[in-house]
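Table 4 source record.
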Amino acid sequence: MSQALPLLAITMGDPAGIGPEVIVKALEHDEVWRACRPLVIGDAQWMSQAAQIVGSARAVQRIVNIAEAGTREAIEVLDLANVPASFVRGRVSAEGGRAAYAYIEQAVRLALSRQVEAMVTAPLNKEALHAAGKQYAGHTEILADLCGVKGTVMLLTCERLRVSHVSTHVSLRDALTRLTTERVMRVIQLTHDALVRMEIAAPRLAVAGLNPHAGEGGLFGDEEEKIIAPAVRAAQHAGLNVAGPFPPDTIFWRATQGEFDAVIAMYHDQGHIPMKLLGFFDGVNVTLGLPIIRTSVDHGTAFDIAGTGRADERSMVAALLLAAKMARS
């Protein structure tokens, strides 16, 4: 295997979910091996069971030293050996939450120390995470804490659309109070920078309004005039190709027609609904504003089908390929 390919740390996610299975299935794709050197951070015995469940003939290789990683075309697992023999798939448990957190923690350490060039995460379960005493809303908040940064941004991407978010896992009421010109400007800048790393040389960005019809000149709200438009003007003055605010009910369609490379959404559902509609199986979540590259599947643990081998791996394949592209750039 070529040592020139980026080494990616893939966290196994909650062992009770579909993470191990989608990882194994993704590593059946030759295009993944042509793009990167994958290294699973997880439990080797549990990954071996996942390989049996999905019928993979690829060997699972346990390693304990990062220096061994990326030297063979096997499913290499940096083995934390933290899934108990009595563990049950498809159930929320503190053990699953603790294991998933440990994989993230290890991958972040490797990424911060530049022993891997990016990390790709399989899904965790928030209820299990909280049962383990880790009071986070999700991956993004864990990563920000472990990396010692604030103001991260969620970017979702699929074949037809890219959307970044001014706010995500907060109530709609809180999303309104957190909307500031400075925050919108930061999201615009981070989105621009991320698209350049995705090999889009001159990103064209559109900013969605908050209110119906982007406020209709103040008739339906004045956040566009007072908060969002000043951020757009500031970004334009900084040399970025950005426009808006546009009515939210049409701007996503315009982006899918090729007019823009990404849309800045004001809150979680405004951006997630069009993304889930267009990229339910191949969507990728990218965390912006970190000192490391992190991509993720855009789906949950799917406890109801864990252990059946039916989980769809397309999002994991897309996450791996995107992480490799960003690492190379």
